[in-house]
Design goal:
231 residues, alpha/beta, 6-stranded mixed sheet, 8 helices, 45% helix, binds ligand AR6, globular, Leucine Aminopeptidase, subunit E, domain 1
Length: 231
């Protein structure tokens, strides 16, 4: 049976290439090392209700801008479902721009189980968080804080208590953290995106001029944070 779902075929299409790439890189770097890989969710497009077309343009634009800066490292946009619209949009727009699909690609899976369940090795994950940098609240933030256990809250507090929209904070995970020892994740980068949901704090009242500016800043802060881990 041919799988017609674009996000699913995205996993399959890049699988062979990615595996070959990982093998080459790992043997070059030594078996203890993996290719630096950032897995990130689409910031602001679920609970924060940001428009998917505009968000996908910004994701592709920012990935294209940062890919040359991160050396051999990879950027992976992740979402939970094979029917994810944001993954389909980003995949289509990235291929139109001829971006290297071995170094920027989409992947379907739970961001807290990418290695154990998806076979994808990522050493850094991004979290679409809230301004308090607190567990819970649903979405990817609740999932990441839950999977990481209390270690993440403690490690986060060392770095910051609050976050402004458009900003990111890099948090190293101790080796005792379940996300570190089970999934190989050494850093979580919390990112606060623009909020378009009137039921959440700091809603932008549908101002997409401000919203797009803040979403661009959010991806810039995220990718710069990843760059600081890679270097
Ligand atoms: N793995 C991968 N992707 C996920 C996962 C997961 N486990 N869970 C959700 N996504 P959202 P936002 C995708 O709503 O719009 C929170 O409550 C999801 O399908 O988590 O930035 C915070 O506390 C979507 O594509 O983040 C904030 O208050 C993407 O992750 C607020 O929501 C982001 O969805 C942030 O809202």
């Amino acid at each position: 049976k041919v799988n017609a779902l674009p996000a699913s075929s995205s996993n399959e299409a890049t699988n062979a290439m990615r595996k070959a790439n990982e093998k080459t890189e790992n043997s070059r770097l030594g078996s203890a090392d993996i290719v630096h890989t950032l897995a990130f969710p689409s910031i602001s497009t679920a609970d924060f209700q940001f428009d998917l077309e505009q968000a996908s343009d910004i994701i592709v634009e920012k990935a294209e801008e940062f890919l040359p800066k991160v050396g051999t490292a990879r950027l992976v946009l992740v979402d939970l479902s094979h029917g994810s619209k944001i993954l389909s949009l980003v995949k289509a727009k990235a291929s139109q721009k001829n971006i290297d699909s071995a170094r920027f690609f989409t992947f379907v899976g739970d961001i807290t189980k990418l290695r154990s369940e998806g076979g994808l090795h990522c050493n850094v994950i991004a979290n679409a968080t809230n301004w308090r940098l607190k567990p819970g609240g649903g979405g990817v933030n609740a999932a990441i804080f839950k999977a990481a256990g209390p270690d993440l809250e403690t490690a986060t507090r060392v770095r910051a208590n609050t976050l402004l929209p458009g900003k990111a904070v890099v948090v190293p995970l101790p080796s005792t953290c379940p996300l570190h020892n089970a999934e190989g994740i050494t850093h979580v980068i919390h990112v606060l995106g623009p909020n378009m949901n009137p039921n959440r704090p700091d809603n932008l009242n549908n101002d997409y001029t401000k919203g797009c500016k803040t979403l661009r800043e959010a991806y810039t802060s995220l990718f710069e944070g990843f760059l600081s881990v890679v270097q």
